[in-house]
Amino acid sequence: MSSLDALQTRIGYHFREPSLLLLALTHPSVAHELGSSLVHNQRLEYLGDAVLQLALSREIYDRYPAHDEGPLTKIRSQLVNQTSLAEQGRKLALGDHLVLSRGEQLSGGRERSSILADAYEALLGAIFLDGGFDAARTFIVDSFREHLTEIADSSIHDNPKGALQEVLQAGSAEAPLYQVLSVSGPDHDRSFECAVTHQGVELGRGKGKSKKTAESQAAIAALERLGTKDSPSPPPAP
């Protein structure tokens, strides 16, 4: 089995035109070193970046129906930065297959994050040209599945109200309702108790020093009642 055959087996995609895969792995340093017009992976990198942005934008859009543009953009930026893309390149051992100049090889180019990130994007461009957008999208979603799950879990902790709304919207378009049940204590030390209901059913209650905190605690209680995976435990009362 050739080196490129082994790589195709590892990535789970076999090219109809293997020359596209070889091009995706060819770093510009080779052309610079030889002083020739040898083609390299920068054009594929440009294309792959666009494919990656579109595929992940659609996946994130579908996964987070309660999120507006700002949070959606923040989630995507966590996935498409150089560190994240280089990690994808290392998972696939792209460094072992890169076509580099001698200078780049001697300076550690096979492990350089910028080169691995660019090669990963070039690989996406190559898959897109070889198999179309659906093939590229499937590959991208599979590659980022673990990261997407991690972000989903962290969103429960960071935004329990948004997480609860997403859980409920899976079965109903009706949004949860939050109601202040009581306010106690002096003006400088208020304590709020809130309840969250959905379709007339109370799902949870929470307390806090502000209405926002009490609502978040109610959402956490509701997520725990609904058995949401990795729902966070409420912090101890101050």
Could you tell me the mean pLDDT?
87
Radius of gyration: 24 Å
Please name the CATH architecture of the largest domain. Answer: Orthogonal Bundle
N→C terminal distance: 63 Å
What fraction, in percent, of the residue positions are helical?
Answer: 55-70%
Low-pLDDT ranges: 229-238
Record field, number of beta strands: 3
Concise account of the structure shown:
The protein is mainly α and 238 residues long. It has helices spanning 3-11, 18-24, 28-34, 42-63, 69-80, 82-91, 102-106, 113-131, 133-158, 160-169, 211-225; strands at 177-184, 191-198, 201-208.
How would you portray this structure in words?
The protein has 238 residues and is mainly alpha-helical. It has two domains: 3-158, Ribonuclease III domain (Ribonuclease iii, N-terminal Endonuclease Domain, Chain A), CATH 1.10.1520; 166-225, 2-Layer Sandwich (Double Stranded RNA Binding Domain), CATH 3.30.160. Helices cover 60% and strands 10% of the residues. The chain has helices at residues 3-11, 18-24, 28-34, 42-63, 69-80, 82-91, 102-106, 113-131, 133-158, 160-169, 211-225, and strands spanning 177-184, 191-198, 201-208. Strands 1-2-3 form a three-stranded antiparallel β-sheet. The longest helix is centred in the middle third of the chain and has 26 residues, at 133-158. The protein is elongated. Residues 229-238 have low confidence and may be disordered.
